[in-house]
Amino acid sequence: MTAAATPEPGASAAAAVLASASASGVRRLWFTSGSELTSFQEAGARARHAGEPTPEIVTCPHEHVALTAAMGDTMVSGRPAMTAAHADLGLLHHGGAIHNAMWGDHPVLIMSGYPPTRAESRTSPVFWKQQRWDQGSIVRQYVKWDYKLSALDDPGLIVARGLQVALAPRRGPVYLAVPEEVGRHTVPVTGRVPSAQALGVPVLGPGDAGVVSEVARRLTTARRPVIVTDRVGEDPRAVALLAELADSLGVEVRATRYRMNLPDDSPWRSTTPLDQFDVVVVLDHPVPWMPALEQPSDDAWIGWVGPDPIESRVPLHELRADARTVADPAAFLAAVLGEVGAAGTGAADHVRQRRQRPPVDSAARPAAGGGPAAGAPTPALIAAALDRHLRPDDLLTWEVFDTAAVTRTKPGTLFEKGGSSLGWSVAAATGARIASGGAHAVAVTGDGSYLFGSPDSCLWLQQQHDAPVVTVVVNNGGYRTGTTTLAAHYPGGLAAAEPTVVGGHLTPSPDFAAHARSQDCYGERVVRAADLAAALDRARTAVERDRVPAVLDVWVPEHLTGSMEPRRRERARATTEGNSDG
Questions:
Q1: Among 164, 199, 234, where does a domain finish?
Q2: 424 close to 432: Cβ distance less than 8 angstroms
Q3: Domain that holds residue 524
Q4: Which pTM does this prediction carry?
Q5: Mean pLDDT over each residue of the chain, to the nearest integer
Q6: Contacts with 416 (C-beta within 8 Å, 6 or more apart), sequence order
Q7: Which ranges of 490-531 would DSSP assign to H, the alpha helix?
Q8: Ranges assigned E (strand) in 448-572
Q9: DSSP per-residue codes, 376-387
Q10: Where does residue 403 fall: left (phi above 0), alpha (psi -120 to 50 degrees), or beta otherwise?
């Protein structure tokens, strides 16, 4: 939160919006142009000229990229962010990023304009076409709050309220529609604009004291307890406390890679099936198990803890628990550690025996591997190369790729989207790099998801804002859903048996390296596993020394066929594995 500004006399509603957002901690407005959004450009310029605090307007050529970059901003900075999009169609262009914003717990104020309704302002046919009865209904299922600003509203108060809701646990996106006339409308100056913090942002505590004590007792006395978590890594304090609790009590941890929830060098990481545990503590995890695939044993005790321990965002959530409490994960873990400190001698002996037996499968974490491998790249070999290449402080964003063998030990260095809409990784890495002040960022994505992410706009954004990112495209020439999933659903079927699987193969494969070079970026195709390490080094040099984005187009065996030959024949200049486009 910063000191609240007082808009100058005659200031517009847009000026009050920006002043309130700045006072609430927003540092960047990820902006995609629209004719009804010019008031924000003018208000931002006036604030900068007057030396008033105001969010930086970051130009984004595509709304999907803007919202995804805003997510990268929030996940690194911990602050709220804003987007601005053009009317209903710009809001629609956010697309699946809205789903990811909700499921990634990102406090983003999503704004879009609304066409003018006064006769003298309706100077284009589009102003009739862009009117919707209820523009907020486009995103209402995915946001915590939505509002349409009117000329009678106090715009600073409305923004403060929206960001208050966005920042309240569980964090998430909110939506504000800003009509064209309202944005340019002069508002009376009544003093300093309010902020979300002035209204009051609630903070969760450790949860119900009885549940804390029960969890502490059961973790101490259980035969084999486990903590299952997905979101602890959103708070670095919680990561350290979870590691301390696991070490203190010999508790196994099943953690996803949505964030770096538990350091990869912890001996208590586990992949043991859930039915092997007599105590299961779910710590901020939306889907800790899928009953069709596995679930705890019928006699296991289950505790469920988090900002929303009943997952109220989901219409049907049938997973059982014996105790649930609303809590901040870090505060809950600290409280449990406090209770554990008072454990009796007998319990301490029991724990000591458990601590001497870390889970056998903790040693089964995929190894990084030795030297460079021969043959074609595979996802496992790419992961091994990344493991050797990445430094502890590097940021890694990923989607549709297994990072289990890529060692991450520092909180806030591993990020996944949280939702299921593809096209997230590259723009998120870009936003994260900008918000971090220049940390080295690597994005790993598939070829299909890279195309979903509007790569032209991502590369332009990186160049325009001096935030180059290394992008690794794991290019298997298709979609798993349309190839391997097809084959699983229809074994022996006709569609998967065709040489080119219609609806699954991306044939011919785009030349992502050439595309990057056409935009004055670094682009290289990698078709040999032995070249991965050197290619990653060259990409880092391009980003750090030359200040240009880098794209590595890594060709892995195709879905179903396991062969690279059909795609290699598509381009005469890729006839040998030794050729690499640098």
A1: 199
A2: no
A3: 379-574
A4: 0.92
A5: 90
A6: 256, 257, 258, 259, 397, 398, 399
A7: 512-518
A8: 470-475, 522-526, 550-555
A9: S--HHHHHHHHH
A10: alpha
